[in-house]
Write a structure and sequence with these properties.
Number of helices: 8
Mean pLDDT: 81
Radius of gyration: 47 Å
Low-confidence stretches: 739-746, 939-947, 974-979
Shape: elongated
Structural class: mainly beta
């Protein structure tokens, strides 16, 4: 009975032991079979495969694999190769809560990054980035029981291959990592895990690496890369050591040695809580370029204290020349002297004293040559760990600074400066710059020498900076295309304050002035003003007040040649200068706005009061014009605009505009222009409807000009019109115009709402001075132009129009009468617009519009005209046009025949032998058809037999017709006009 009770009591333990032994035996037997038979793919498509050969596989004794390969199957390129892998675990340590990895050894592993025609061999391994749903990130892995973990990882004789047209190969890399964690109940997943290490030793090296690179800049030889990090916590004592070395003295770059040696070593002394830096060294060849040593006290506390000394060293930069030559880049030369220098104190009050000198340092970047000489001494007390925003320091870090003298020369420029920061005097700084050439930095844009005197003052908390500076730009020349300006001397002076408040930064330019003079001292440009800007986290706001005045004749003489040609016609109007006064207020942020006034002053044009007042607000998707007003010409000119407009794809407009000019008496606006009458335009744009109203009453303009060749004048008299229109963008954009609309009878013809009294000048259209005033349009008794026009259904219609064109030798004016003219504007897209017109020409003299000829001839014609075209973006190609000319003189008919029919009819026939009673020309589908009627003119013409009464020439391409017509007009002169 007692035996049965004992068996019952220990039966669960025996069962657990039996299960563990059975599972262990099963894994021991199955593990080799599983590793031998199961292929491993690293992606779903099976294009990246892991393969190996089993040497040994045991749960107890570990796993030993050979020839392990991670292969990209499509390209056949290996990504990883490992000659031998040994893995041994300490699973029995789980029983005592000390699991570990006693051995993970990789012998001769090789990482290969290879580009092939199909891409990189790692493309299918990495794949596209996974799109995962955001989840709460874990910070710890709980164990529930105290556990101590250890591991030992070795990488022996590793190599790395990078192949992308050229090979870069690194060999003989050794890495040894040993870790022991303290007992812990959870495993941190962040940097906190470093605090759980009771022992760590990481060793990289110490065997030299073999480097090999072929290609344009070959690399060959050995380089020592050694890193030792050792940390051990024993009996509450912390031991830490670090040693880093880089030695390239046995490395050749393009056959040239690169003898660089760098070492930084340090260790922690636990009893004194001090980190010791016995050596920090950068050596090139046999000379130290940087050498320092020191201590960091209170290393494990929040307030660390530095005590570091830099020995005076001298770096000869020319020793780098072989490296730069090997790399085929511009070299560097000169010397840099660093130190002696000392760094003392905690980060909150770190003292830095020392010297720095650069002697004839020369380098090249691109096409720029740089030469620098510099010498300075530095004595500063800085704070690299401010306690909070309430502690305000100069430039954010300086308690104090003494830079007694800075001397430097850069290329041809000289720099002198000093700076001082103390609690008593605050921040003081001065910098002088002389003869800094801007030519190398703006080639083909500008040239000249820049100088500056900069001075700034501030309290030591850097809360307010006051500056007073002067800038000089001597011999400034700039380029426009291939033209270069004449030299100017520019002087600028500014006085300003910068204030750093709690949530705002204020920039206040109290006074700003700029002048530009030519080399004779004559002023070309003057600018004065002031500005204020406020910067916050969300917006920028401010206001400016600028006055600009240009002495244009002086400025014009300095302009590049091509700009002179472009502005030559304006020199007369701007001869007394140009002035602009503007005052603006602006904000920029989620809601932006601009508000202000501007006044234009052009003395020669009597424009001294042309002013613009605006208030515009801009949101994320809309522009709102709260106020926009234009006033001038003694308030006889006024304009306004109000409304809003969308800034996105949806305009959703709501705009109202108006422009008025009222001058009841003629007034000379400037020397060349006289204006009188009234002009009024009001319009609005509401969603899809555009409305406008035009009202012109007795408008008159006179332009006159006198030059060395003589004086000329041009006058427009009595323009009157009244037109209201509404354009509806919602209407269809396609419209068919009728080919012919019946003309209204004279009794029903509406009264004219567009009239022009006359347009006349002292010269004919071709530029000949006339003995008496010449009328282009109009006559002494009748109006030059009368018409009725209306705008309906997006179409501008002229049911009737009469224009009288006068020639001084004519007894009566020529008349153009048009009817049924329509222009369909669609949606303002020229490709969808259409035009139609019918007109009759009576007794019109073309002679004043043709090239000059000493021959006396009568250019009077009468004609009928019809035009219809759809698609005004290609007006002539899409046009259908018919012109029938009759009543043309015998002298003029020869020239007209050569224009319309240059190939079929010899002009010599039209010389008192044959008269031309009529000419017909038709344009259709890009082809020109012409017909010339013939009639014998005298008895002598019987000697010339014409084959027919009409000569036709069909299907001339429009381009060839225009070219031949232009040639005929060009050749029309006294020697070619048939007598």
């Amino acid at each position: 009975m007692a035996e049965t009770e004992m068996v019952r009591r220990f039966w669960p333990f025996f069962a657990l032991v039996f299960s563990i032994i059975t599972l262990w035996a099963g894994l021991e037997l199955a593990l080799p079979l599983l590793l031998a038979k199961i292929p491993v793919f690293f992606n779903e498509s099976g294009t990246v495969r892991l393969s190996w050969q089993i040497k040994k596989a045991s749960v107890y004794r570990g796993i030993h694999l050979e020839n392990l390969r991670l292969t990209d199957v499509p390209t056949g390129e290996d990504i990883v190769r490992v000659k031998e892998l040994r893995l041994r675990t300490f699973l029995t340590g789980l029983l005592v809560r000390k699991p570990g990895l006693p051995e993970l050894t990789l012998k001769k592993p090789e990482l290969r990054l290879v580009r092939t025609a199909q891409g990189w061999n790692t493309d299918r391994l990495l794949g596209p980035p996974a799109t995962e749903e955001p989840t709460a990130s874990r910070t710890h892995i709980p164990f529930y029981l105290p556990v101590q973990i250890f591991a030992s990882i070795k990488v022996e004789d590793a190599s790395f291959l990078y192949r992308d047209g050229e090979d870069f190969f690194v060999d003989h890399l050794d890495l040894d990592v040993r870790l022991i964690f303290t007992g812990m109940t959870d495993l941190p997943l962040g940097m906190e895990i470093l605090d759980r290490l009771s022992f760590v030793q990481i060793t990289l090296g110490p065997r030299p690496l073999a480097l090999n690179r072929n290609g344009r800049t070959p690399l060959q030889g050995n380089a020592l890369l050694y890193l030792l990090i050792h940390k051990q916590l024993r009996e509450a004592t912390d031991h830490f050591q670090i040693d880093f070395q880089l030695d390239t003295r046995e490395l050749l770059i393009a056959g040239q040695p690169f003898p660089l040696f760098t070492r930084i070593a340090g260790h922690y002394e636990d009893p004194s809580d001090r980190f010791v830096l016995p050596v920090g060294q950068v050596r090139m060849g046999a000379k130290d370029w940087l050498l320092f040593s020191g201590h960091i006290h209170n290393a494990r506390q929040n307030v660390r204290v530095f005590d570091v000394n830099l020995t005076q060293t001298q770096a000869d930069l020319s020793e780098l020349r072989p490296l730069f030559q090997a790399l085929e880049v511009p070299g560097i030369s000169g010397r840099v002297v660093c130190g002696p220098m000392q760094i003392r104190g905690p980060l909150t009050r770190l003292d830095l004293t020392g010297q720095l000198e650069a002697q004839a340092v020369h380098l090249q970047t691109g096409n720029l040559q740089h030469r620098l000489d510099l010498k300075t001494a530095l004595d500063a007390r800085m704070n690299f760990a401010p306690s909070g925003p309430e502690e305000k320091l100069a430039f954010g870090i300086f308690h104090s600074l003494n830079l007694p003298e800075l001397k430097a020369s850069y290329n041809q420029a000289q720099i002198h400066g000093r700076a001082r920061i103390t609690r008593e005097t605050g921040v003081e700084g001065d910098l002088t710059l002389k003869n800094f050439r801007i030519d190398p930095y703006a080639p083909g844009v500008a040239s000249g020498a820049l100088g500056a005197d900069l001075r700034f003052r501030s309290p030591d908390d850097f809360s307010r900076i006051a500056t007073e500076s002067r800038l000089y730009l001597t011999g400034l020349r700039y380029y426009s295309d291939r033209s270069r300006s004449a030299p100017l001397n520019v002087r600028a002076r500014l006085t300003g304050i910068i204030q750093f408040l709690e949530k705002t930064t204020l920039l206040e330019l109290q006074k700003f002035s700029l002048t530009a003079q030519d080399l004779r001292g004559q002023q070309a440009l003057q600018l004065t003003g002031q500005a204020r800007t406020e910067l916050t986290a969300d917006a920028i706001s401010g206001d400016t007040d600028l006055n600009i005045f240009s002495h244009f004749p002086v400025l014009y003489q300095s302009l590049p040649g091509n700009l002179k040609d472009s502005l030559a016609d304006l020199t007369l109007y701007f001869s007394r200068g140009i002035g602009v006064k503007t005052r603006q207020q602006f904000t920029s942020g989620k809601q932006s706005s601009i508000k202000g006034t501007s006044v234009l002053n052009i003395p020669f044009l009597n424009l001294t009061d042309l002013s613009l007042k605006e208030s515009i607000r801009i949101s994320e998707d809309r522009l709102t014009i709260e106020e926009l007003e234009l006033v001038g010409l003694g308030r006889s000119l006024s304009g306004r605009a109000r409304g809003s407009l969308g800034l996105g794809q949806k305009l959703d407009p709501d705009l109202d505009v108006a422009l008025k000019v009222f001058q009841p008496r003629k007034q000379r606006i400037h020397r060349n222009l006289v204006f009188g009458g009234s002009f009024a335009l009001e319009g609005n744009w509401k969603k899809d409807r555009i409305g406008a109203s035009l009202d012109i009453r007795d408008l008159e303009l006179t332009y006159d000009s006198c030059q060395a060749s003589g004086c000329s004048d041009f006058t427009v008299q009595k323009i009157n019109t009244a037109l209201a229109l509404v354009h509806d963008l919602s209407l269809p954009v396609q419209k068919t115009l009728e080919s012919r609309v019946a003309s209204p009878t004279l009794g029903l013809r509406p009264a004219a709402n567009l009239t022009i009294g006359s347009i006349h000048a002292s010269h004919s259209p071709r530029g000949e001075r006339m003995p008496a005033r010449y009328y282009y349009l109009g006559s002494a008794r009748e109006k030059g132009l009368e018409a009725f026009m209306e705008y309906r259904q997006n179409t501008l219609s002229l049911p009737w129009l009469v224009a009288r064109i006068f020639h001084h030798s004519d007894r009566k004016p020529g008349v153009i009468s048009a009817e049924n003219a329509h222009i369909y504007l669609a949606d303002f897209n020229a490709a969808r617009m259409a035009v139609q017109a019918d007109a009759r020409i009576a007794h019109l003299n073309l002679e004043p519009y043709l090239p000059y000829s000493r021959s006396q001839y009568n250019g009077i014609i009468s004609a009928d005209f019809h035009l219809q075209s759809r698609g005004l973006d290609r007006f002539l190609e899409n046009a259908t046009m018919r012109v029938s000319i009759y009543d043309l003189s015998r002298e003029f008919s020869g020239f007209a025949t050569r224009v319309v029919m240059p190939e079929k009819l010899a002009a010599v026939l039209v010389n008192n032998l044959i008269s031309i009673p009529s000419i017909k020309v038709e344009l259709k589908e890009g082809l020109v058809y012409s017909a010339v009627s013939l009639q014998r003119a005298s008895l002598l013409s019987n000697l010339v037999a014409t084959a027919q009464d009409e000569v036709r020439q069909d299907r001339i391409p429009l381009a060839r017709f225009l070219e031949s017509s232009q040639s005929a007009v060009r050749d029309f002169n006294e020697t070619q006009l048939l007598q």
